[in-house]
Structure formats: C-alpha cells, structure tokens
Design brief:
Helix content is about 45%, strand content about 15%. Helix 2 crosses helix 5 (about 70-80) and helix 6 (about 95-100) packs across helix 7. The strands form two sheets. A seven-stranded mixed beta sheet has the order 5-4-3-6-7-9-8, sandwiched between helices. It has a two-stranded antiparallel ribbon with strand order 1-2. The protein is of the alpha/beta class and about 350 residues long. It contains 15 helices and nine strands.
C-alpha cells in the first residue's frame, strides 16, 4: 500500500550536512550501545544530577568504578552525539541527555530496542526475504514471539511488557470513558494478553461481562490476574475463549455486543487482519460494533511520534512474526471494508499516540 499523504517536513540540507547525517546513520548502532552503557552504568544519571554545575572526570570515575579508558570511550561518544557537553572542563548534560535519562517514553523505547530487538535485527535480511521472524531464536524457540511472552528471558521480558503497557495503559482511561458510554453488556477482548484491560473494564462497568480471547498460555496469565485482584470479585464476570487467531477457521465468540482489539491487529499480516475482522463481524450481536485501539502513524500530530511508530515495524519483521507492521489508519479501514465493516466514528489523540476506531457491519 502507498505511504499516503503523511510526510516528514525537512529543510533542505547542504551536501556537507547531508553527509554528516549519513555518518550518523552509519555509526548509529555504535552510538546507541555507548549511550546505553553510559545510562546503565549510572554515568549519565550522575551528570544529569549535576546538570547546572557539571561534574569533573575524576569524580565520575570514582563514582562509577569504570577505568579511565572505559569512561573516556563512553564520554567521547556521548559528546559527539550531543548527549553531553564540556563546559569549563566539566561534563554537563544537554537537553537530549536529560531526556535519555529522565524521560519515560525514551527509556521504554530504548530498553525495548536494546533487550528485545537489537541482536534479533542482525537477522533482518533473512526475515525480509523469507517472511519469518528470523531473529526470534535470539530470544527463544517459538514460531512467533506471542507464544513465548510468558517465558521470555530477562531482561527482554520486562522490557517487552514495559513497552507494551506504557503505550496501551496511557490510552485506557479515555478509551474506557468512550466504551462505558456505549452501554456494552458483553465485550470480547481479542488479544487479552495479561488481562490488564479486562480488569479496568470490569471494574468500571459493574453490570458487564467479558470474554477474553487469546492463546491458552496468555489466558492463563489473565485468569490468574483477574482471580487475584479485588479479592477475585471480577472473576465471575469473565470467561475465556482459547484461540489461535492465525487459524482462519477458528471462530471468535458469538452474540457479543462489541469486540475490543487494543494494540493487536499490528501483530498480524494484512490477510490475517482481514480474516480476524471478518470473524468478528460474524460474532457481533445486532447493532454491535468492533473497536480497534492502536497507534497509527498517519494519525500523529508530530513527526517524532510517526518516527517511533514506523521504526517499530522492523521488530515485527525480525522478532514478532515476520509479516506484520505498524499500520496506517487508512490501510486498516480498507482491510475492514473488505471484511464487511465500515468505519462509523474515530477518536484521535488518546494517551500516547492512540486512535480509537469504531466499525459496524455494513
């Protein structure tokens, strides 16, 4: 599908500046690893803490336990990347350095890339050619990452869930407000994961019930979660529908008022998305709706958001499943149309970069 009309506005660069940008890309993996080490060794935190006055080399060395050689290597790379600066012989953090250390969005993204994606992306060429997650064996022996989420090795497991929850949780309050106004009696959460949304929905909508749909191992995590919270009071209103959604013949629950799919359809290829939406349409009760909450890069106000989303797609290519990506909303609307659904309403700017789409049967 074509890229649509979303563009990245850029001022014209001189040949000299363009060549410098090219070198930044060429050395990007080196810079990434050095800045990551600077952060995880605690050096960047010490510099940020003394942002106004700065800190001298010897104080940094003693405080971190790194050799003069190791510290010099990290600091010089950070200096070249404008993460830090030298003022009157002391190291100070730039605004970029402050964000790398203190900003939750940056930290979550960086840890996800480092712990989940980095080594796996070395296999990207094979993944692109073969349509399979060729880098996934760096994390475990599964066909897709979703089969192994509950048993990912650390720190990949913590970084994966932190990344997933950071984005989804930010949009849940606004999305729940919308859903709660619709009078939904029976909601099916397709791709229920650990049951975080199920907890929120059932807690807010005390007369509603929910069917959680996912792989059996994921549903077991969700069941444990729902049983443990609020002294198990939510559990009686939850039921479970084990389903391998890659199986086009596997039906979804029937007679439900609404299907909920949050940060979910990006985990599937275009034909699979169409199949899932078609099965959801078949499972709707009269006047039912399908709600899709996701981060569409063509619905973003700022280029930085689109940049982050677009560059999450290679994770799906090399790690997750080999054939999905971060979709544009216009692409998903076309796929929904092929599945017999029509967009009735949409809400933008929910949480971090989210859009909620409401589809109804044609």
């Amino acid at each position: 599908m074509d890229p649509g009309n979303k563009t990245f506005e850029r001022a014209e660069k001189s040949a000299f500046d363009a060549r410098f940008e090219a070198q930044r890309i060429a050395f990007a993996p080196v810079v990434f690893q050095c800045v990551l080490a600077l952060r995880r060794e605690g050096v960047l935190a010490r510099i940020v803490e003394r942002r106004e006055k700065g800190v001298d080399f010897e104080s940094l060395r003693v405080g971190t336990g790194l050799s003069p050689y190791a510290l010099t290597v990290l600091l010089e790379t950070a200096l070249s990347a404008e993460v830090i600066a030298v003022v009157e012989g002391r190291y100070v953090a730039t605004k970029t350095g402050w964000f790398l250390e203190k900003d939750d969005l940056t930290r979550v993204n960086m840890d996800f890339v480092a712990d989940v994606c980095y080594r796996a992306l070395d296999h990207l060429p094979a993944a692109l050619r073969e349509g399979r997650p060729a880098g996934l064996p760096e994390l475990g022996n599964w066909k897709t990452v979703y089969e192994g989420l509950s048993s990912l090795p650390e720190p990949a497991r913590s970084s994966w869930f932190a990344f997933d929850h950071f984005y989804s949780d930010s949009a849940f309050p606004a999305a729940l407000e919308i859903l709660s106004s619709q009078g939904i009696g029976h909601l099916a959460d397709v791709g229920a994961n650990t049951g975080r949304f199920a907890q929120a929905f059932l807690s807010r909508n005390t007369g509603a019930r929910m069917t959680l749909v996912d792989l059996p191992q994921q549903l077991e995590l969700a069941r444990e979660s729902l049983t443990s919270v609020h002294e198990g009071v939510l559990a009686p209103r939850a039921s479970y529908h084990p389903c391998n959604l890659l199986d086009a013949g596997a039906p979804l629950p029937s007679g439900v008022d609404a299907f909920w799919m949050s940060q979910f359809l990006c985990c599937f290829s275009e034909p699979q998305v169409e199949s899932i939406l078609a099965r959801a349409k078949e499972g709707l009760a009269q006047n039912g709706a399908v709600y899709v909450l996701d981060t569409f890069w063509d619905r973003q106000k700022y280029d930085v958001a689109s940049y982050c989303l677009i560059n999450t797609s290679p994770y799906f290519t090399a790690v997750a499943n080999g054939d999905s990506r971060m979709y544009k909303a216009v692409d998903l609307i076309v796929l929904a149309g092929r599945a017999g659904l029509v967009l009735e309403k949409s809400w933008d700017d929910l949480g971090w970069s989210h859009t909620l789409l409401r589809f109804v049967a044609r």
